[in-house]
Amino acid sequence: MTIKALYPTVRPTLNLDFAKTKALDPRITFTRASTATFVGSNGLIQTAASGAARFDHNPTTSESLGLLVEEARTNLQTYSEQLDNAAWTKNNTTVTANATTAPDGTLTADRLLETATTVSFYVANFGGATATPGTYTASVFAKGDGSGRLLNMTLQQSGAYQQSYFNLSTGTVSNVDVSLTASIQALSNGWYRCSVTGTSSSATTLFLYSAVAAGENSVYVTRAGSASAGLFLWGAQLEAGAFPTSYIPTTTATVTRAAEVVDITGGNFSSWFNSSVGTFFTDSTNMPLASNIALSTYNTNNTVAFALGTNAPDGGRAYLPLLGHLSNNTIIAQVFHYNGGGTNFGPTIQNTISNTANINKMAFYTDPPNQLFAVAVAGQIATLDTNFGRTGANSYTLANMMRIGYNGGFYGNYNGRIKRITYYPTRLSNSQLLTLIAT
Question: Whole-model pTM above 0.70?
């Protein structure tokens, strides 16, 4: 049977195709109490005004990625675009301000140059150091200057130096110290965003070194420098968290990007929601290691009725599809029931899927009168057809609002891009669920 034959023929009562429309449905209430950055269709970093939604794009292909929703984060690194400022300590280096076009299309990227001495070569901003123990991610936009130098990013944590090397010609990461994780993302015009994450019991400081070869231990190395060799750098960021979020520009002080809250409530919710039975489909892309709850519905007691994503919160009398990333890149899906007095788990399906791209398509139906529930993910179906001793009204039937991108709660905040959310006011068949996630 063809995919076309299995595709739902019933019309959805809600179809939020953010990647296609790049606009908010008028039924949505959106808030963010600060400006924020995103990648525009031209591949350049742009700034959205306070309270304006962000529709992100792939910086190299210009593909529309959908609505960007993130938690609040603070850039602790001051003078993020002004490495020539005195706040940045220069060790046997010089910094030429505004030497080339930055990832936002402005002439604001600086060039770090070595000096013709025999020693190590770096810049560091100790004003951005934090004394609070925890997990921190440092990132910077970097581009080769034709000299073949590599970027060495070093975090000084717990009294030790932890390093990672980034090849700005091949776009690869190597020689990452075991206490760090590192990533590199290609942008347009030869730029890369390089990031490292580590956990410290004391202060965390970012050092940016010019390196000749991977593994040359830039912290203690003594080598000959060249006054014509170095790197282009822009947009340094140090933030508390296990992954980098969108760029937050700073000057004299730290800057906080507020969290996005995206809701559909009241008559804007009840106009399309069927309190008896229904099916949701979501297509979203979350950031590595981030929670990925693309949507959740709430009932009159403000408990979660159900949620779709890589993690799902519990709540009173809630039936939830649960999708989680394990350490071995296995994706696990469960139908999860919490009845207020204990947790019961339904059938579990597992698939070994690389989460490098962090793509998540899920379809879920709930049929409370018949106590039937199913979630489709990774080409398989997990079903639950028993109430596990459920008592009282099912929270699905009491739902009166939807939050797009779950914010807060036990599993934290959503951080990623939501391409599409579709709701059908009926129960779709398992075959139709599988068709939705396959298209």
Answer: yes
